[in-house]
Design goal:
Chain lengths: 449, 449
């Protein structure tokens, strides 16, 4: 029955966590879920696969290379060979909305936390399999603009509860550059955006050169760079744009919409949102507000949470569903915090207590102690063997379990509990002992530099 | 920017839930996780893919047809084409243990709740994508037998907290039939097990006929059926087996081990475990104790939670890792409870309160009320538009949100809150209002017959 010995090697781009790291990731997952639910987003999960045709439908973004799936044992029916793993949670959500529109109540608020897969070349912080945490609001026909302010503020509330340190959510509205470019006579809006989007990577000189190469005048290029250089935490960006002297109705529309989002931010969470007119979100399908999120001091990580508004998240030909959403790159964020900042969990198990076993004949007594502790919400484990107490304590210590419980160690056959960090050992009764609140769940350990 | 209208059709075997159903599934997921963590199992997640060679390694079980994955855009390197989606969580866990053995502390207790994929023919309650919830304990070299009693008792604790009604965990030990068959002179143990395993499906006459066809005498076939007919909630099964007059050292070993599990069950959770000598767990790789779980009154659903002991979960050629584990077929269980028993959640959103908006100019006041409620842990949502109150109340009602909050509806510009089920409307302050505990989270609705 013994299977043959097999070599094991990691698969590039498919990272796995050790238990303490996974406990840290779970803390992130639990926190974002709690905040999403406090804001009335309904949980949703979609299947991992979509027809490849649908996955390819959203423009040929080479960054999102698709994994196709096929039954190895099945005859190729020509149908199953057309399924692929989703590369984000927006495309499946749009399809889900169309499929279930008759059973959903609109505006529909949902959160979705799932794995996604991308066949791109693995590199630092870029994985082929990773978890995203998304919120979206979708409505029928029209979508109220206040949702565009709400999305980043929900994210800010989640991030403030997480050990990510200072962060900044940058907001722009696609209509601002679009109207601005049209106002100065650059009609290839997408092409211009694509060049300006490289600003952080290649610098202003090269951007200007590429714009001129694509047909812009020096003055047009200068104005594009001037626009992209504007950022403000308050509404002053509006005057700065106006000072450039460009007029266009689409620009007015964009500035009004962006001002509304920034105004809500200054009212509800001052210092969280920044109007940043360089944010473009590449070739994505956004049509209005766009978001990116930087961890302050680690801007080189790139955006850890991005999104925006799409006038047409989905359409069945008769009805159009506009939406706005934002997505946390959760695996990536946790991976960066673990590898770059050394974050981890305070222990490698949920257990707060190890109940020692005096000898195998009295294991039932230790099991009863554990049951009493669990009935009061204290996660615990019974020692795997009746080894010497020193060995049982080392078992707890290796896992970071803070307490070891000794049945019958006290007077009159009462129990005792030892805090193995301090060495303090006191009389205790499993029916009444209070585990310190800070020890009940694994905590987050942030190394001090 | 509008994508073309696309037809949407469900994909057979890849079910998706509506929000209220997903809230019910989350209740199950949260409950099993809580119980697993109370018992000190560490959370673990493995990548979705394994080398196909490893997936195929565990015997050619045709029930577990594998989905291969490949990058649609990538040149076929001959390496990526060899990856497949995992069909269970045991094979990846065994690989993870080998890969990380140096970083884990043994015995290692982990739980794992993840999607798995099987390319089998979809049918009622059988999916191609579904969630499993597993616990396992694995050790180095040898594994203490008390873990074999612990596994089903953890599951029983989880099931007692879930709305599954009465259930029964059947336990057997592979060594009992193995030793028994050897004791009566049937040396093809696997072949005999395979035939006896069909008992529930084809009945005793056909089993006897097939055993005889395979070379057994009538008396041997009779004894096999007599053994498979034994079940008891206490230790009386031992005497019943002994009464058949068969002797073999492997039988003795199996009876001792099974008696130890059943004894722990009668001590710690009377009436939960049943020794059932017909349980064989098909062709799986178990070597000792095996488990199956029936929902009483719906035995036709088959086992909703199964597992067992494997003497060699993993091996790297030098070291062997024995383990014992059990796996809840969670999607399947929830699907059956939803479709066969009509279970659902009491609402389709986590929100307990809808904060009404009097007019768009005072939306900020409603947003502030919502923030105050959330700060005290009350999930809520602000009305999407300042529609007539009747329409706002209907918005809440359609989603099952029990309370609607009216800013400024009380005396002196104070607020009021309405329970839309009873129609009661009372003065309330968001800084002090207590949401009834039963309404804070969506509840489970079990139809009465």
């Amino acid at each position: 029955m013994t299977p043959p010995a097999q070599k094991v090697t990691p698969i590039s781009g498919f990272p796995e966590l050790l238990p303490a790291e996974r406990l840290l990731e779970l803390h992130f997952l639990d926190t974002v879920r709690e905040v999403f639910e406090l804001h009335g987003f309904a949980p949703l999960e979609t299947r991992a696969v979509e027809p490849v045709e649908r996955l390819l439908g959203k423009g040929g973004d080479a960054d999102k290379e698709i994994y196709g799936i096929r039954r190895l044992a099945g005859e190729d029916t020509g149908r199953e060979s057309e399924l692929g793993l989703h590369f984000d949670l927006t495309v499946p959500f749009a399809r889900y909305v169309l499929e279930n529109a008759g059973k959903l109540s609109f505006p529909f608020r949902r959160y979705q936390v799932q794995k996604v897969w991308r066949g791109e070349r693995p590199q630092e912080g870029r994985f082929r399999e990773f978890t995203q945490a998304d919120i979206d609001v979708v409505d029928v026909g029209t979508l109220a603009p206040h949702f565009e302010a709400e999305m980043p503020l929900v994210i800010a509330e989640a991030f403030r509860r997480l050990p990510v340190g200072e962060f900044r959510i940058q907001v722009n509205n696609r209509k601002v550059p679009e109207g601005f470019y049209l106002g100065i006579g650059l009609t290839d809006v997408a092409g211009t955006l694509r060049v300006v989007d490289k600003l952080a990577k290649i610098g202003p000189e090269k951007v200007a050169a590429q714009l001129v190469e694509a047909g812009a005048t020096d003055e047009q290029a200068r104005l594009c760079l001037a626009l992209a250089g504007i950022r403000s935490e308050d509404l002053s960006f509006v005057d700065e744009v106006r000072a450039l002297g460009v007029e266009h109705p689409v620009l007015d529309e964009g500035l009004d919409a962006l001002a509304a989002v920034i105004r809500a931010g200054t009212e509800q969470a001052p210092g969280t949102l920044v109007a940043d007119l360089s944010v473009a979100r590449g070739l994505d399908y956004y049509t209005g507000t766009v978001y990116e999120t930087q961890v302050v001091g680690n801007e080189e990580w790139g955006s850890v949470c991005s999104g925006g508004r799409y006038d047409s998240l989905a359409s069945d030909g008769r009805t159009t569903y506009p939406g706005v959403g934002i997505s946390i790159g959760l695996s990536r964020l946790v991976h960066l915090l673990v590898t770059k900042r050394g974050l981890t969990a305070s222990r490698s198990t949920p257990a707060a207590v190890l109940v020692a076993v005096v000898d195998e004949d009295t294991r039932a007594r230790s099991v009863a102690v554990a049951a009493a502790l669990r009935a009061r919400g204290v996660p615990c484990e019974v020692a795997p063997s009746a080894a010497k107490f020193g060995k049982q304590i080392r078992y707890a210590d290796r896992r970071g379990i803070p307490f070891v419980w000794f049945p019958g160690a006290g007077d009159d056959d009462g129990d005792q509990v030892k805090d193995i960090r301090s060495g303090d050992q006191v009389d205790a009764d499993a029916a009444t002992w209070e585990c310190p609140a800070a020890d009940l769940r694994p905590g987050v350990v942030i190394p001090q530099h």
